[in-house]
Amino acid sequence: MINNQWYIILESKELKKNKPLRVKRMNEDMVLWRNENGKACCIADKCCHRGASLSCGKLKEGKLECPFHGFVFDETGKVVLIPANGKNKVVPETMKVTSFKTHEDDGFIWIWWGDDDKVTAAPFFFTELRNFSYSSFKDEWNIHYSRAIENQLDVVHLPFIHRTTIGRGNKTLVNGPVVTLENDLLTFYVNNVKDDGQTVPLKPNEIVDYHKLFHLQFHYPNIWQNFISDKIRAFAAFVPVDEDNTVIYIRYYQRMINFPLLKELFNYIGKISSIIILRQDKKIVVTQLPKKSEYAMDERLIMGDKPIIEYRKRRHELIERYQEVPE
Fold it and tell me: By three-state DSSP, how is residue 149 classified?
């Protein structure tokens, strides 16, 4: 993973008010809960006393009580009460576990993965989507999150994996694509056409007025959106579980229909369509080897893979800059 980044790890609706939630993210077992003010709290799911799972415990005045011996943890991971020592006994500073700073907005929960002294004010989000309604679902993939991301940067696979859905038309010839990068926002412009047997694909620098083309965006470390139209977008968050597994949160955003019931129906149809398309990808992507993408790999890439090439290059630069958290 890239260090010193905000990562989406959950949808807000998954974290209930009065119950701890155990998840594996970033190759770490974590427990989340909401304190008395509803704020999402996240610490390591392993008691520093005897190693019990804290997620099996219960909430006590907005803090988390270990089910084994009643040690009480606050959101910073510190033990604030050891019942066996009595309420008046000062708790040693060493009695603590790793904690993760959280941010919650737009129906998602992020954690800060990195150094506390480098925390930025808030994570990046495609804020224009706040004017849309949406439906959502999540899917678990047996592949590293980098591979899942690259699938959504792949403009070559459309007429093959998605020949019955978004890849209809047999547009196998790929012009460019053009890729831009600004402040960790990677945008790529797509122009796939039918191969007439004579046309030679245009190089990126040969494409005129590329800004007018269909485009998609990815923002490091793990969110993506597809500009289907001015009023319809697809969104994805690629959440690292461990070296071999990823949770993908997909949202279908739209602002075409705002009437109650009709809006919910339209969003539901969009969700079903998104599931069909994603499962077409999943069937093939989970077979890729190795499961994790690297900057330099034993692959023979082509011009149409430019978004993937640029993604790997920038990811490598960020890892080198911040130094990767041990996994």
Answer: helix
